[in-house]
Every structure is written in structure tokens, then in C-alpha cells.
Design goal:
five-stranded parallel β-sheet; about 15% strand; alpha/beta; six-stranded mixed β-sheet
């Protein structure tokens, strides 16, 4: 399997090199040169498989030539063996044909665990084989940071620096990052928003001279391995609901477009998916594109669903690449136009093509709270605000009541007590046993200005397990 850049000017790489590269040298994102496709019979034969075995079958083509089957199977069994539910990603029924796919049974109670528990183990495997050491600099709007630290904290050959927007993540999200100590773990609160953090990460990849020879590795969803891991639970959900003999639709809370792009890939790999709904909050750049063909950057607002407080959706470039016939030069020009002018529209036929599969809805805080209260009254289930946005979007945008609708349950509600409290849900939420004392643990975090050079100087000074790089 070879991987190419969405901007067409970077060399094609194998999986091992893509894992370590993250962003392509031309500023683009890596995608498979040719996507594997499974027959309906092949997909049907996977029904009833344990999650790690299904993951092996779905992901095996992506790592062929880089990781032997026996090693990859062992990595996957270890990855999903740490999840607290035997089904790993259980489905919970809300009503007759509406389901929540619970993706929060991993160590940090968020869907990011599916990819980042795997990413940490893959890095360990590849770096040990190569005898290399790397630096991770990642940006988080809430959940990626803790999942990345949890997944990589035991990696012997990794130093990890996670940037989050100061005072713009929930207390539980922050503490899940800042209470994990280790010589190779560094939390940085940036006096800015998530887009500022993400821009610093991209700039650092573009010019890595501050590392003095060590290379950067991405844990954000620009890293192909994260997208790859997320494809699996679309197959898992569909198989539980009668797929591939019947189609399934999905509503996906998303800000960075990575999670829903994985669903788009699952469909292109042969899984019958009828509809993908982009569910987002007030920061609605994706909704404005899907509903009106306007991808325009506007002011970023803080909301009750902070993991989607994103105005520049990095992974959207991967979809644009396909919509433009995989023309790297066209994408490079489009991204340059966005960087200079703050927005773009695409040709009508390309937008119409996207609308055949995608619908979207932007949901404000008041509607989010209303949905949390409504679902609790109907079912006794408490939703986190991101999942609630997914439910609202599913109910507003659904094309067919006959086709099962799966909402991706992206996080445990205990991570967002403010939203649950504002929704008027009286039920007390308790942290799982392994996090029961989280609010009493000591924290370690460095607050830095919204300044790239200050961040890079900190990374250079504190890398290599506390020794300057």
C-alpha cells in the first residue's frame, strides 16, 4: 500500500513512513493511492467477529508490506483489550430505528481512544524496529490530548507535547491531560483558541529546524493511522444492524471532519451507507459548505461542545481531493486561496456530488441542552453535548425512517457536567472507578502565550525526557 499527498508534490510513502510523517512535505495530507474494496459476501462473513478481529480484516490492506499479520493482530488485541466493555463499541437503542454507537468505553472516555491507543502501539513497534526517537506535538480541542497521552505515555522513544486552548476545555478534559505525569509528557495551555494551537502544529511540521535533528510525529487526525482506525467502527455498527444486506445511515458530531471522513471511506470500501450527516455546533463552517457551498472562516465561539470549537477543518481537504478527481494541483490552489482570502466555493457539480451522500446541521447550545433533556426524559439516557448534537441532526436531517440511523456517541457525559447541568438533568454522573479521584489529583501544565517561537523554544528545551534537544 502506497500513500500520496492531497497536494500532489510530496513523494509517495509506505505505511510505516506515513505513520511517522503525519503532514506531507508539500503541506498536504496523506491518503491511500488506491482504496481497498470488499465484496458484500466478504463483509457479511465478518458478522460476529470480536472487535479486534474485525479491525484486523478492515485495516490489514493499509499496513500490508509494513507490519506482518501476526504482529498486527497482537497489536490490535492489546489495543482493544483495555476497553471496559466487552463489545468495545456497543450499540444502545434510543427508539425503534435510532441507535447510539457508544465510543467512550476506552481509558479516556472518548472516541479518540479507538485511534490513539492503536497509534501509540504502532509508534512503539515502528520506532523500536528503526531505533529512532521522535517528538509528538499535538493540538487538542478537548479529547485528543488525553487520549494521545494515554496511548503514548509508555512509549520509550517518544516525547509528547500537547497544546490546548487555555480555559477552553472542560475541567475533566483538562485534568485527564494534566494529571498524567512522566518525563516524556508535557501539557501546554495556549492563550488562544484551538485553531491557534492547530496552526502552530502545522507550522512546526513545515519547519522542524527547532528540533535540531529529531523528527515530529502527528497525533492529530492529519495522521492517516487515526483515520484508518476509525473506519472499523462503521463496519462494526452496520454488521450489528443487518449490514451489508441493508444500508445504514450515520450522524457524526464533527469539527475537524476526521471521524465522518472515516465513514465516507467505509462506504467507498464497500459498506452500504445511505447517508452521512455532519452534526456540528455554532462553529458551523462544515454546515455552511454542505448546505450552501460556502467554506468561509468566521469568528470562533466557545460552546458547551468544546471538542467541536474548530473553524478550520483539517481533514476536509481529504474529501475535497476526491471531489476534484484527486487533482493535487487543484487542491493546492484551493488551499492557497483559503489561506489568503479566508474562504472558497467549489464548482456546482462537485458540491452536488458531495450532497448525494452528506447532509448537515448546526446546533446551538440551547438546542443541545433541549436535546439532552428530551432524550433523558424519553429513555433515561444522559448524552454528552456532542452526542446530543448528533441526535438533533439525525432527527432533523434523516432521509428515511426505514433505514437504521446510528449516532456516534463520541464521549461520556461525565466529561461535560456543565452541559448536563444546564440541560436540567437531575441524575448525578459519576466518574468510572479508574478516574474516581481525578478532581483531587495534582496537575502539571505550562501556560504559554499564543506565540509559535515561545512554544518551539519550550519543546526544544524540554524534549528528550527533560534534556534539551
Amino acid at each position: 500500500m502506497r500513500y500520496i499527498s492531497t497536494r500532489g508534490q510530496a513523494p509517495a510513502l509506505n505505511f510505516e513512513d506515513v505513520l511517522l510523517a503525519g503532514l506531507a512535505t508539500d503541506g498536504g495530507l496523506y491518503v491511500p493511492e488506491n482504496l481497498p474494496r470488499f465484496t458484500q459476501e466478504e463483509i457479511a462473513s465478518w458478522a460476529g467477529l470480536p472487535y479486534h478481529e474485525l479491525a484486523f480484516r478492515v485495516m490489514r490492506p493499509f499496513v500490508t508490506g509494513s507490519i506482518p499479520d501476526a504482529d498486527f493482530k497482537k497489536i490490535l488485541e492489546e489495543t482493544y483489550g483495555v476497553f471496559s466493555h466487552n463489545a468495545v463499541a456497543p450499540l444502545r437503542q434510543l427508539n425503534g430505528n435510532e441507535w447510539v454507537l457508544e465510543l467512550f468505553h476506552g481509558p479516556t472516555l472518548a472516541f479518540k481512544d479507538f485511534a490513539l491507543q492503536l497509534l501509540g502501539r504502532l509508534l512503539d513497534y515502528v520506532l523500536e524496529k528503526r531505533g529512532e526517537r521522535v517528538v509528538i506535538v499535538g493540538a487538542t480541542s478537548g479529547d485528543t490530548g488525553s487520549a494521545a497521552i494515554e496511548g503514548c505515555k509508555h512509549c520509550e522513544n517518544v516525547d509528547i507535547f500537547i497544546l490546548h486552548p487555555h480555559n477552553r476545555v472542560s475541567e475533566v478534559q483538562r485534568r485527564q491531560m494534566t494529571t498524567l505525569f512522566g518525563e516524556n509528557i508535557h501539557n501546554i495551555a495556549i492563550e488562544g483558541n484551538f485553531d491557534d494551537c492547530q496552526e502552530m502544529v502545522k507550522a512546526s511540521f513545515a519547519d522542524q529546524s527547532f528540533l535540531k535533528g529529531t523528527r515530529l510525529v502527528a497525533v492529530n487526525s492529519i495522521n492517516w493511522a487515526r483515520i484508518m482506525a476509525q473506519i472499523v467502527y462503521y463496519f462494526h455498527a452496520a454488521l450489528q444492524l443487518g449490514g451489508p444486506a441493508r444500508s445504514v445511515s450515520f450522524s457524526v458530531p464533527t469539527g475537524n471532519f476526521g471521524d465522518i471522513f472515516a465513514g465516507y471511506l467505509a462506504r467507498n470500501m464497500g459498506l452500504p451507507i445511505n447517508q452521512l450527516i455532519v452534526a456540528t455546533n455554532r462553529n458551523d463552517i462544515l454546515h455552511r459548505f454542505m448546505s450552501g457551498n460556502h467554506y468561509v472562516k468566521e469568528t470562533l465561539h466557545a460552546t458547551l461542545s468544546p471538542s467541536m470549537d474548530i473553524m478550520v477543518s483539517s481533514n476536509f481537504e481529504r474529501l475535497l481531493f476526491d471531489l476534484h478527481g484527486r487533482n493535487g494541483a487543484a487542491i493546492a490552489a484551493l488551499m492557497d486561496s483559503f489561506r489568503q482570502g479566508g474562504g472558497f466555493s467549489v464548482e456546482q457539480e462537485r458540491w452536488t456530488e458531495a450532497r448525494k451522500l452528506f447532509d448537515s446541521l448546526a446546533v446551538d447550545d440551547a438546542q443541545t441542552c433541549e436535546t439532552i433533556a428530551e432524550v433523558y426524559e424519553q429513555t433515561g439516557e444522559v448524552l454528552d453535548p456532542h452526542t446530543a448534537i448528533g441526535v438533533k441532526a439525525a432527527r432533523e436531517c434523516r432521509r428515511s425512517l426505514d433505514i437504521p440511523m446510528v449516532i456516534l456517541g463520541t464521549a461520556h457525559p461525565v466529561k461535560f457536567p456543565d452541559a448536563v447541568e444546564k440541560a436540567g438533568v437531575g441524575r448525578a454522573l459519576e466518574l468510572p472507578v479508574h478516574l474516581a479521584d481525578l478532581l483531587e489529583r495534582d496537575e502539571r501544565c505550562t501556560v504559554l502565550p499564543n506565540d509559535l517561537k515561545a512554544v518551539q523554544a519550550f519543546v526544544s528545551q524540554h524534549g528528550n525526557r527533560g534534556k534539551p534537544l
